[in-house]
């Protein structure tokens, strides 16, 4: 759920929170932006008339009782000042009220929508004895009653929770098709060329539907091309192996009538025929690794056992201990196919044997690194020029001008003949097909070092 999902989610939540802030800000300025202030000022005439009536009938005592009733109004306060400027009801008078009461603005209404005292209205009162008083009616801003900080905090909290839930649902709805398409891409990359985006995506009438339809067309084309390629390689293999088999038979028949001088040439024909057969087998294996991957056929394989078998064969062929194998004293299991894994390490080890100097050994080490096994194959040969290392895993790539094989004998049917640049490529693709990776470098003390990393099977 990374990437697009969270971008959509946080964009939606951020937009919603900003919209909430704008709404709250509009509420603050609402009275100034509308005619609401006129509606609030309208009852003021009634307040003034009531105060004047109370003062006429009962004097200051009745007026004070009337003022006390204003304490029941949460949004309206009333203050009456005598000629000495004292508040008849007593108590503390807000600075904004007293400043307005004794200002020289005569009897103009004061509107200040961002202050605690949103509206201030003042009017003179006269008693029966002719004594003058000043009435000030204060309309409090709603936020002053509600506690603006708590109001905004509560509004934001409710908005974030609400839009977080809605955003979670909406983001999932928008990103689900992309996750479905991503799953299909991974399936195709994993070797399942029949994977498609599905009917539900293809029937969409938007950009995602267009993308899924184009993707399925591309996948169909890719599957057809790879199937044709695989069929072509299979047909070529069959067509080449048939004349090669006849050539081998003809070679053996020619030996019966050949003299000693011709035998050498017949041996060479047999050697080259065998090499072509091996080349065809390697090409077919390489093509198979490119298009096929079957994790369901993997089994726990002991790396130590696989490499020991290869080392034993090498020692038998060389009639000497030419490999130093260091490994843990416990089985090292990985999930793989035994035949392919053995083929990969046999290519690497035999390649190292061909390039190591005489009277030196190929060093093979298995180490545990976190959840992986590291299999390191190192020869003691001339190494490879740095500019060629990154291309060693490419099919048919050879850097023989910088890395001559040691002990080559082109006149004998033995390992050590020039290869075709497929061994390293096959090994690389086999390791990669088992969810591993391979690293190649020149060892600081000389020779080429190839490190293969495979996931450990617990």
From TrEMBL:
Xref: InterPro entries:
2C_sensor_his_kinase, HAMP_dom, HATPase_C_sf, HATPase_dom, His_kinase_dom, HisK_dim/P_dom, HisK_dim/P_sf, Sig_transdc_His_kin-like_C
- Give all residue intervals belonging to the HAMP domain: 172-227
What is this protein called in UniProt? histidine kinase
Which Pfam families does the protein's record reference?
HAMP, HATPase_c, HisKA
**Domain named Histidine kinase: which ranges?**
235-458
Where is it localised?
Cell membrane
Q: Known catalysed reaction(s)?
A: ATP + protein L-histidine = ADP + protein N-phospho-L-histidine
* Keyword 4Fe-4S attached: no
The GO cellular component terms are: plasma membrane
PROSITE patterns (alphabetical): HAMP, HIS_KIN
| Subcellular location, principal | membrane
């Amino acid at each position: 759920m990374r990437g697009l999902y969270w971008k959509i989610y946080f964009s939606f939540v951020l937009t919603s929170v900003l919209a909430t802030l704008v709404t709250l800000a509009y509420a603050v300025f609402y009275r100034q932006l509308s005619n609401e202030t006129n509606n609030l000022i309208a009852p003021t005439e009634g307040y003034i008339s009531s105060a004047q009536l109370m003062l006429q009938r009962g004097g200051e005592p009745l007026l004070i009782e009337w003022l006390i009733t204003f304490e029941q109004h949460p949004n309206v306060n009333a203050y009456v000042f005598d000629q000495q400027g004292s508040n008849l009801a007593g108590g503390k008078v807000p600075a904004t009220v007293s400043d307005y009461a004794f200002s020289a603005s005569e009897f103009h209404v004061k509107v200040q929508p961002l202050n605690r005292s949103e509206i201030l209205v003042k009017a003179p009162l006269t008693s029966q004895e002719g004594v003058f008083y000043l009435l000030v009616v204060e309309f409090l801003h709603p936020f002053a009653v509600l506690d603006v900080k708590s109001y905004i905090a509560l509004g934001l909290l409710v908005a974030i929770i609400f839009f977080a839930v809605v955003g979670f649902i909406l983001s999932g709805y928008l990103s689900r098709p992309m996750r479905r398409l991503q799953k299909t891409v991974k399936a195709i990359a994993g070797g399942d060329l029949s994977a498609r985006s599905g009917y539900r995506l293809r029937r969409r009438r938007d950009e995602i539907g267009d993308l899924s339809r184009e993707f399925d067309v591309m996948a169909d084309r890719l599957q057809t091309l790879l199937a044709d390629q695989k069929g072509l390689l299979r047909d070529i293999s069959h067509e080449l192996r048939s004349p090669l088999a006849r050539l081998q038979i003809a070679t053996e028949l020619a030996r019966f009538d050949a003299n000693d001088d011709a035998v050498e040439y017949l041996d060479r024909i047999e050697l080259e025929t065998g090499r072509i057969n091996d080349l065809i087998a390697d090409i077919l294996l390489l093509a198979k690794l490119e298009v096929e991957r079957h994790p369901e056929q993997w089994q726990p394989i002991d790396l130590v056992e696989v490499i020991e078998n290869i080392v034993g064969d090498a020692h038998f062929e060389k009639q000497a201990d030419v490999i130093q194998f260091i490994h843990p004293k416990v089985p090292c299991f990985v999930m793989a196919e035994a035949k392919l894994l053995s083929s990969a390490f046999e290519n690497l080890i035999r390649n190292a044997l061909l390039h190591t100097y005489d009277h030196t050994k190929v060093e093979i080490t298995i180490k545990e690194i976190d959840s992986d096994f590291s299999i390191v194959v190192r020869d003691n040969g001339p190494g490879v020029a740095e500019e060629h290392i990154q291309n060693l895993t490419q099919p048919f790539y050879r850097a023989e001008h910088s890395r001559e094989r040691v002990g080559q004998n082109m006149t004998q049917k033995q390992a050590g003949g020039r290869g075709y640049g497929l061994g390293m490529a096959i090994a690389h693709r086999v390791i990669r097909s088992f969810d591993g990776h391979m690293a190649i470098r020149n060892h600081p003390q000389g020779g080429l070092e190839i490190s293969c990393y495979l996931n450990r099977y617990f």
